[in-house]
Records
---
Amino acid sequence: MRLTIDREADALYLQLGDSEIVESEQVSDGVVLDYSKDEAVVGIEIWGLSKRVPGIDYSSLHYEMLSSDKKPRPSQPAA
């Protein structure tokens, strides 16, 4: 899994795997899903990031992992 943020394009892309993208679909304004040949979602693109997350701090992105018992663990800085 890979998260890419393009400040110049004001966009975020979350790549969910290495599958080839064969189709893309805009599911709402500025949100595009990429699909593999098996119709699985393999990427999520979000445009207009600064409007969706005003004041975003690119140097302090966090992610959260859920344990097997589904209780949230503390947020960890992105590597």
---
Amino acid sequence: MSHIIDKHEAEIKQLGFEVEDFVPIVVQFGELKEKKSDDKKITLESQMFRVIIQKKWNGKDKTFLLSAFDLRKKPR
């Protein structure tokens, strides 16, 4: 979770959440994206964020490895 906090803590706090509360919300209410999922990862998306659950890392099975991406368009 530290990499999620490093990259996305400010955006998540702007939405009024703490990271440790937000990720479970996306997991619970996000939509499974089967076309973006495969034998190595599961992809869940909400309207503004994506959560990736890695099932394998460096070729080895893992319990969970989470990564999150901000899907809001950023001003240029």
---
Amino acid sequence: MIRFLIAAAVLAFVVFTFLVVRRWFMERRSRAELFERVKPLHDKLENKEEITEQDVRPYAEDILTREPTYALLKHYERTELFPEDYYSRIRFAESDLANWLEFPTELGVCPDEIEHVKKVPIFGESEIHYYEVFRFRVGEPHWIADEGWMLGVVGPYFDNSEPSDFPRATFSRLSSEKNGADSGCAIRSSAAREYL
């Protein structure tokens, strides 16, 4: 019996270690891929080349490069180049969700369509914070295309949050919007729980 328990513990440790290491490598690869998308802009900034808002616009328009582009411009103290029409909480939350969904443990791809649904307030003890709710879907031949519209939530944001503030929590529900609403698709945070 003791040998069985030891063998089970060793097996559990090996499986746990494999999963942790695998996730670490996937996250690292994902970050490297994200950097590659903005590398041409990074190189221009690093080399102090002349850059205009028109050079930055394609990166801001792309849902997957919007967030890292602003972070890059902030690092180089050039945020004035970021197009004003993309500097909003909804645009940054949308980008955060798309990058989250592209992660291999979620959809593994950027959604084909994504739409803002609503801003949900959460009433805390001393302040109100908000989550931005989106619906998204992917087309064939993706394995989850048959689900149709699904839900994603990004936040929390506060009244004094800047549009570019990084949200602490991004969630997605990989089942249909209808099923999500019927089952009470929950927004969970350490402070509160609210249902859509």
---
Amino acid sequence: MLDPKRVILNLIQNLLISFRPYLRLVEKQVQGDIIIQIDILEKVYIISLNFKSGILVVKLPTILIGKKGEDTAEKYLKKQGYRILGKNYKSPSGEIDIIALDKGTLVFIEVKTRRSDEFGPPEISVTSTKRQKIIKSAFHFLSKKRIKDTPCRFDIVSITGSPDQKEKVVKIIKDAFEIERW
């Protein structure tokens, strides 16, 4: 007879295999519960599977969903003819998810992923504050690389769908925002 705890644990481990480049799994049993420790990009997250209550809630850390979204966005952008120059560019002001070239234009891309659009599409979470951080990071990139007289724009890649769904809704919002007055 199959052990239901083992079946569920195997299911979760198989789901997490697609995130293998980003994590390391450690499984423990504590007082009948199965604890899965996930080390993701130098941060530790815990998923506890409690079988005593008969309710099993498993939620993936949002950092995994974001990283998986960035991978999906990169593949999609390449199919659309973008040439990826860099990912996760960090500056003192923040981070730019993807920097790419699109027909001679340097594009700074913010990737937003949501499991569903129940609370609105992913792109609405790019707030004014986030836009300003991206713009400052773009200026930092241009200055550091000594890039001048090159057309630039800011795009958003919006992805709706959970990481385990094969079909996700991916859209590129070109010229999603502009540099506002300082």
